Amino acid sequence: MNINLDNVSTFIATQGVDIGLKIIGAIVAWIIGRWLINLAVGLMGKGLDRAGKLDPTLVKYLKSIVSVLLTVVLILAILGLFGVETTSFAALLAGAGLAIGTAWGGLLAHFAAGVFMQVLRPYKVGDFVQAGGVTGTVTELGLFTTTIVTPDNVTTIVGNNKIFSDNIQNYSTLPVRRVDCVAKVANGVDVQDAIARLRPVIAAIPNVTQTPAPDIEILEFTPEGPKLCVRPYTNNEHYWQVYFDTHKAIVDTFGAAGYPVPETPMSYRGLPLPAPGPVQA
């Protein structure tokens, strides 16, 4: 027992001070390091918030990621003070990252696409878009998925990677949007008269813009009669109101003008009558 105590006292006398200083140095390094990390992350967050180009959710995630990475570097540096080989820890972290990347490949792809979409901003909440094969109003733009409400009031959640790897149409980017309608007039009706009657009526529909003015022209010819394209312009917010009011205006205008209803020409061919059957006695 005396030998053990002597060994302990000798160890403390020779190595204790060095170990104690290392422990104190590690504690001081941890406190100062964490303070510097929080300061750096806070300044980064304020800078991103001041710029106003990134979504607050993305800023929060970026701050968390940077904080975790800097904390790992700080821990490795503190372990280096004790003479611990950090290469093995680095290899372990690299292996863990590879395993996580392989297991969560799909989620990470959606996450990466979400980050790019937050930066590039192809659309924002409230925009009417066609993205990932879905058309509707964006109600939520997350880091993994985008939530879209379709015109028939169905909530659809689409993965960001699917959206980012496909074409995106944003109907809300420009101030006005064209409303495509058609009107068919019967053969024999004066097409120019029909166009002249429609122009002031369509232009008077609420929320139809005067610049650009509505387009009313001959689109094509059909067996029933000429088909007109009727294309007013309006803000996307009033699209469906203008769409339905335009169709009502076409029916009312043509009805008031007394235009006949277009009919498909029918050709009738005489068919032989069936032979009479035998008369029953």
Automatic annotation (TrEMBL):
Family annotation (Gene3D superfamilies): 1.10.287.1260, 2.30.30.60, 3.30.70.100
Family of this protein: Belongs to the MscS (TC 1.A.23) family.
Annotated TM spans: 23-44, 65-84, 90-116
Function summary: Mechanosensitive channel that participates in the regulation of osmotic pressure changes within the cell, opening in response to stretch forces in the membrane lipid bilayer, without the need for other proteins. Contributes to normal resistance to hypoosmotic shock. Forms an ion channel of 1.0 nanosiemens conductance with a slight preference for anions.
Keyword Lipoprotein among record annotations: no
GO function terms (MF aspect): mechanosensitive monoatomic ion channel activity
Domain of life according to the entry: Bacteria
Name of the protein: Small-conductance mechanosensitive channel
Bilayer topology: Multi-pass membrane protein
One Gene Ontology cellular component annotation held by this UniProt entry: plasma membrane
A Pfam family it matches: MS_channel_2nd
Location of the protein in the cell: Cell inner membrane; Cell membrane
Domain Mechanosensitive ion channel MscS residues, every copy: 107-172
InterPro entries per the UniProt record, alphabetical: LSM_dom_sf, MscS_archaea/bacteria_type, MscS_beta-dom_sf, MscS_channel_2nd, MscS_channel_C_sf, MscS_channel_TM-2
Keywords, sorted A to Z: Cell inner membrane, Cell membrane, Ion channel, Ion transport, Membrane, Transmembrane, Transmembrane helix, Transport
Subunit text: Homoheptamer.
Keyword Ion transport belongs to the record: yes
